[in-house]
TrEMBL record:
Designated name of the protein: Trehalase
Keyword Cell inner membrane appears in the UniProt entry: no
One Pfam family cited in the UniProt record for this chain: Trehalase
Keyword Chaperone on entry: no
Superkingdom, natural source: Eukaryota
Catalytic activity annotation: alpha,alpha-trehalose + H2O = alpha-D-glucose + beta-D-glucose
Signal peptide bounds: 1-33
Top-level class of the enzyme under EC nomenclature: hydrolase
EC number(s) from the headed UniProt entry: 3.2.1.28
Keyword line: Glycosidase, Hydrolase, Signal
Homology family: Belongs to the glycosyl hydrolase 37 family.
């Protein structure tokens, strides 16, 4: 039944897109004030901050002591803020304060390890294995286009990883949440893997794409249920399900998850339950801290969005690292702004990259809050289109019209604010320094960031753009000439900075969005490029898996079969979104019986 629903819903979506075009010609233009958002205003003063819990503040102290005790070698600060308490906080703090300390404030290894063992359970003990209710070793109709037995065997092993990554919160988290930084989610989750033992927001979209290829529809719905729980509880979908992530979100893809699940299952009740939270999330992303107004060359105002974390201290999960990075700043206000930039960059999902730096050789010039990112605004455009489509599905026609108007206006912004005709790419737009104000900023060509990043091509993911064959062919040619296409996939940038969201790393989400956009177009050249990128990505995942026995978080696109590196933590395995994208690519493109899958 599911394949029939998939084809039927794709046809409905095509008809809906056609109606978008027709309605965009007849709907009146939106006024300056966006009726779907909170009033936009200047972010004055220090900006909003969500306070840390007493437990979190204490665990940061433990983290700092651990660094003094053990030193930097193999030190992972996240480990210490993930530790669950065995007993109440006050007793634990009292014992910690009584630890004998040297003059420099450090604690002996023996005393510190005895304290940790007595008062804490192990990091990761607050999640337990959850058997997925819909997992079968080889689902009926699984990857019908994969004819090569070697590739099919590997795909089934990747499919089986969903069992390995399935978790639920422990009973202690549910009954004693005050002892944990892990949040008490109601349903099982798929975790990314390794040090990431909690669910993450934008990772979940590609996990769900893989689950849908694996026919695990109930597991996919449970993930959305958990994300909606966070949205209802905290007012936004959190970066991840930990107390230290409550101050920020991540790229907003919840509506895309709901759309993809509906597209496969036809579950109208699921859409009805999801629609109000999706509208709530849309309002959050169009609130005063995230939304700014840019006036284009034709004096038309555009409401566009940025990342902006509600935090101005070291990130608890990386507190010791952040404090060291901020040590060059002389006053507290500069440090607080830098800490906000760090957290806002983490909200982008691209933590870290030269994309966010005013000086690519100086990490402390992070300026994420002064950038209107192409991909964030594409995700919000997709949110507008998804909500319009889902509302129409359940008969909420007034909501559909409101969101079509919003998408109509945002689409125009992509032409006048982000598009660069000479480069054939959409470029991030940098705001003027110190210009966080109620008045619209005037668009300037020199404020476009003309450096090449994979995000410059993400708008192709949206059908409004990939349905324009002339545009697609221009952008495809630009991609081919950009320097990003490498032996094993698309590089994230052209700058080898040592940051993980830069060259030579390639990431599953970026491969998927660009490939899916190219493959949906009517351009034969674009579809050929899409297939070639997908095959390179599948090969490097396969060869790395055979060499290491694991799927990896990121890959080195210069070398087939090599995983990536860089950044502030060691390379991770598991790995949720990599698994999902491989399965989605194999579902779409298949693998012929006689085609080799080595790196030659």
């Amino acid at each position: 039944m599911a394949p029939f629903l998939y084809r039927t819903n794709r046809k409905r979506h095509f008809l809906f897109l056609f109606s978008v075009f027709i309605l965009s010609q007849s709907l009146p233009p939106m006024a300056l004030a966006n009726p779907l958002s909170a009033p936009s205003s200047c972010t004055k003063g220090p900006g909003p901050v969500i306070p840390a819990t007493p437990l979190l503040s204490f665990l940061v102290r433990v983290q700092e002591t651990a660094l003094q005790t053990y030193g930097k070698s193999n030190f992972d600060p996240k480990h210490y803020v993930d530790l669950p308490l065995k007993s109440n906080l006050s007793t634990t703090v009292e014992a910690f304060d009584k630890l004998p300390k040297t003059e420099d404030g450090s604690v002996s290894v023996k005393d510190f390890e005895a304290f940790i063992g007595k008062y804490f359970n192990d990091a990761g003990d607050d999640v337990v294995y959850a058997e997925p209710v819909d997992f079968v070793p080889e689902p009926h109709g699984f990857l019908p286009k994969v004819e090569n037995p070697e590739v099919r065997g590997w795909a089934l092993e990747v499919h089986a990883l969903w069992k390995n990554l399935s978790r639920k919160v422990s009973s202690s988290v549910l009954h004693h949440p005050e002892l944990h930084t892990l949040l008490p989610l109601p349903r099982p989750v798929i975790i990314p893997g390794s040090r990431f033992t909690e669910v993450y927001y934008w990772d979940s979209y590609w996990v769900i794409r893989g689950l849908l290829a694996s026919k695990m529809y109930e597991t996919a719905k449970a993930i959305v249920t958990n994300l909606i729980f966070m949205l209802d509880t905290y007012g936004h979908v959190l970066n991840g399900a930990r107390a230290y992530y409550t101050n920020r979100s991540q790229p907003p893809l919840l509506s895309a998850m709901v759309y993809e699940i509906y597209n496969r299952t036809g579950d109208v009740e699921f859409v009805k339950k999801s629609l109000p939270p999706l509208i709530k999330e849309y309002r959050y992303w169009n609130s005063d801290i995230h939304e700014l107004i840019i006036r284009d060359a034709e004096q038309c105002n555009h409401f566009l969005n940025r990342y902006y974390a509600m935090w101005n201290k070291p990130r608890p999960e990386s507190s010791t690292i952040d404090e060291e990075l901020a040590s060059k700043f002389l006053n507290d206000s500069e440090k607080q702004q830098f800490y906000r930039e760090l957290a806002s960059t983490a909200e982008s999902g691209w933590d870290f990259s030269t994309r966010w730096m005013r000086n690519s050789s100086d990490f402390t010039t992070l300026s994420t809050t002064t950038i209107l990112p192409v991909d964030l605004n594409i995700f919000i455009l997709r949110m507008e289109l998804d909500i319009a489509f889902l509302a129409k599905t359940v008969g909420e026609n007034a909501i559909t019209e409101d969101f079509l108007r919003a998408s109509q206006k945002r689409r125009k912004a992509f032409s006048s604010i982000f598009w660069n005709e000479n480069m054939g790419q959409w470029l991030d737009y940098w705001l003027n320094n110190g210009a966080d104000c109620e008045e619209p900023q005037t668009w300037k060509a020199e404020n476009q960031n003309q450096k090449v990043f994979a995000s410059n091509f993400v708008p192709l993911w949206i059908d409004l753009f990939n349905s324009d064959i002339h545009l697609v062919e221009k952008v495809t040619k630009s991609l081919q000439n950009s320097g990003l296409l490498c032996a094993a996939g698309i590089a994230t940038s052209l700058t080898n900075s040592g940051q993980q969201w830069d060259f030579p790393n390639g990431w599953a989400p970026l491969q998927h969005m660009i490939v899916e956009g190219l493959s949906k177009s009517a351009s034969m050249e674009a579809r050929t490029v899409a297939k070639d990128i997908a095959e390179r990505w599948i090969k490097t995942n396969y060869v790395a898996y055979k060499k290491t026995g694991a799927m990896h978080e990121k890959y080195d696109v210069e070398k087939c079969g090599e995983f990536g590196g860089g950044g502030e933590y060691t390379p991770q395995t598991g790995f949720g979104w990599s698994n999902g994208v491989v399965l989605a690519f194999l579902e779409e493109f298949g693998w012929p019986k006689d085609k080799k899958i080595d790196c030659d």
